[in-house]
Amino acid sequence: MNREWLEKDFYKELGISSSASQDEIKKAYRKLARDLHPDKNPGDTKAEERFKAVSEAHAVLADPEKRKEYDEARRLFASGGFGRGGYAPGGGYTGGGGFTNEFNLGDIFGGAAAGAGDGGLGDILGGLFNRGGTRTTSRPRRGSDVETETTLGFREAAQGVTVPLRMTSPSPCTTCHGSGAKPGTSPRVCPHCNGTGVISRNQGAFGFSEPCDDCRGTGSIIDDPCVDCRGTGIQNRTRTITVRIPPGVRDGQRIRLAGQGEAGLRGAPSGDLYVTVHVSQDKVFGRNGDDLTLVLPVSYSELVLGTTVSVPTLEGRVGVKVPPGTADGRTLRVRGRGVPKRGGGAGDLLVTVKVAVPPKLDDEAAEALRRYAEAEKAGGFDPRAGWAGA
Ligand SMILES: [Zn+2]
Ligand SMILES: [Zn+2]
User: Fold this and answer.
1) How many domains does the chain have?
2) Zinc finger (CR-type) residue ranges (predicted)?
3) 274 sits in which H/E element
4) Which ligand is nearest to the CA of 182?
5) Is 345 found in the same domain as 252?
6) Structure pTM?
7) Same domain, 180 and 274
8) What is the tens place of the pLDDT at every residue in 81-126?
């Protein structure tokens, strides 16, 4: 448990009374978390702060054990049972507002709750914001997430592709395999803190925990640091990883590759890699969701008489039948020849016909067309029949 908790009113944070039921806590949190979520308020640091505060309040109050601890600690605090100078002499604490150390309520509440606050909340917030701030626990820190981008051709994006991505990022040191110790040696457990990374000091009835100075909170001591990484266990390396981009990605889509991000310090899990995909335009195809679109140039006579035209698809060509009497601008659907869908199947190919008009005709064709125009009129065709502008 963190001393800062005592200064915070988690109930007020969630806008509920201190007698609220677990159900009411859950409800209040859900609503606030929805409104304040960083995805919904990009760049709004105030909302982010509030979101963190609300998450922290919920993490404590939603856990009946932690809530009990919190309530009891606050009761003690409010009654002046501790904190009001009782242990100030000689200690790090010099008065109101300076609650920066962690302390261990386990000492107060009989040990059962020792360490109850450890990690849980940090993990929640760490996961969301990935700030990697200084942690005072001995738990190895997960590597950071890494962002990168790649540009794919239109057809690659539609069909899926395996691409190499070059990235420079901290990786586990190849010399010491991330341990930080010179090959042939290994880190030893810090004798000062027994590998916990924290030192407990007792002052009167209260126990305080601080990061261990000897091992800087890591819990282990490296006598012979690896020369290649100077004991950190990480090296900057340029690596090329091969990433399989699934079929059907869209321009601007962000893909998460678990465990491909920055290496964790000293054997901690790696972060994730996020790849933002840009998709370049294609000369032939457009895209509408899972459907591929294309514009097919046709002549007037092809529309009138009907024809079959060979058109490209993502895989090979297909013959598209243009029925006699097809109107200009009509869209013909070729089922299943669009963009592959997740989980099987594919969208359709949508072929829109567009009349191409010859800029000029030779004498023979012009003569034939004139005769055709007369025949058309004689046949009773009026292009503006039923037209509102007539
Ligand atoms: Zn090394
Ligand atoms: Zn230590």
Assistant:
1) 3
2) 160-238
3) strand 273-279
4) 1
5) no
6) 0.47
7) yes
8) 443 333 333 333 333 333 333 333 333 333 333 333 333 333 333 3
